Amino acid sequence: MKFKSRLVWVLFFSLVFFINSGFTVVGHRGDPIKYPEETIQADDSAFNSGADYVELDLQLSKDGVPVIAHDDDLFRVTHTHAIVSQNNFTALKQLQYDNGEHVMSLSELFKHYQNKPNTKFVLETKIDHGLNPSYELEDRIAQIVKKYHMQKRIMIHSFSAASLFHFRKIMPEAYLILIVGSLKRINFSNLPQVNAINASSDIVQEHPFLIHWLHKLHKQLFVWAEMDESPALWHWLINRNVDGVVTNYPATGFKYKLAKSGTKKYAINRTGIYFGKTKAATMMNPYVRIKEKKYVQPGQKVNVTYGVRVDDRLFYQIAEKTFISAEFVNFDLTKRDIAPYQNKKIIAKPNQKVTIYRYPDNQAKTQQKLPANQLLKIQNFNGSPKNMWIYTKLGWVKAKDILFYGFFSQDDFRDYQSLPRGSQYTNLVLLPYNPNQAIAPTTFTQKLQQINKIIY
Q1: What is the per-residue DSSP string for 159-197?
Q2: Which run of H or E residues covers position 9?
Q3: Residue 67: strand pairing partners
Q4: CATH number for the domain running over 2-261
Q5: Does the domain spanning 335-455 belong to CATH 2.30.30.170?
């Protein structure tokens, strides 16, 4: 009877996910392009961008605490060498990401999101049971999931079949996903134990029959890749009826999810701000874009109620019968984030071709490039501190691709030094500030020669 009961639970949850999840968007380590991966800030950004789930990695500290971390050594994300398994959690917790957050435990994560029922997680166990026969990590995860009543808000995936098999014993109702990089790993020893397969996009593109085959066996298929924002790849994936995509770009995943379901309008209910230098016109209807004699002023906050996609362009509703292009509204930057840069100019990095975009969106790429050796005024900002976009009269460019150029006063340096580490762009051309000097001490051509020598 006990086995039958467990089997019923497994089939029930498989059916629920199979019917309701559809095209599930999973933010890979949160929203890592915008914010430091696997932080609350990155997770919140992923959920706000439309992710159904956030994927996180789990390892065990020396004193048996499940720690949210992808790498064994935390140097890449905290700039401090520390092996998770060789340190107690009290020591690991002292390490900070570029946004000032500390390394988290699974308990801390669940405590933060416990009363936010729309936040859901895919937990990955980073363990090789060929090297580590202990199941302490899985047992601790199960205890914490049950303690915070997160059973219906998590899925568990892993490259380790042994790890998933153990979860099936201790959490028979859990939704389990086997991550594979090869068809050889999908066999009838593994499949009965799991609810879904998470395969690389290369495998799915090479073997499209896999989708139909797994669905016929009542299993779902998630796809993972080093997801960029290639429209061709996204269209291919969603038109092949995959059940979910694990992506570094949750906002893009959400856009394609809307396109697949035919949804054009969705609720947002967030407050944004306009950082442009001049007023921006609004319109009554995003479908017929007749400008009305209403404007959003520089520095003005706006309450965005809905997002509407028209011809693959996003508009925000900010009042009854009042819409504005999404490029004019920012949710992630603050006045503090842009203060050191807002009165500067930009110039293309020497010997580099800097792409111009129609909108602050990777899929809005044009064939145009920033002219070399030409200074341009900054007219607007968008994006996030880690992934800032700059607007000039020629269009949008990525902040990481250009050099900020101008006089830097003491106030500028004070603003710059007050920023979190991840918001401090180092691509600066520093000109000493002299209030009695109207122009730079050297000619622009000489300054460019200096820049080339410094960078190269």
Answers
A1: S-HHHHHHHHHH-TT-EEEEEESSGGG-STTTGGG-SEE
A2: helix 2-20
A3: 59, 105
A4: 3.20.20.190
A5: yes
Stretches where the chain sits below pLDDT 50 are 1-21, 437-445, 447-449, 451-456
Residues 356, 362, 363, 367, Cα dihedral to 10°: 20
pLDDT at 385: 94
Q: What tokens appear for 90 in the block?
A: 């009290």
Alpha-carbon distance 177 to 16, whole Å?
15
| pLDDT given for residue 131 in this prediction | 82
Q: Are 241 and 16 in contact (CB under 8 A)?
A: no
118 and 47 in contact (C-beta within 8 Å)?
yes
Tokens coding 413: 């340096």
Q: Which pTM value belongs to this model?
A: 0.87
Nearest of 268, 276, 294, 283 to residue 323 by alpha carbon: 283
d(CA 109, CA 38): 10
Quote the DSSP letter at residue 279. -
All residues at 6 or more sequence positions from 24 whose CB lies less than 8 Å from its CB, including other chains: 52, 53, 222, 243, 244, 245
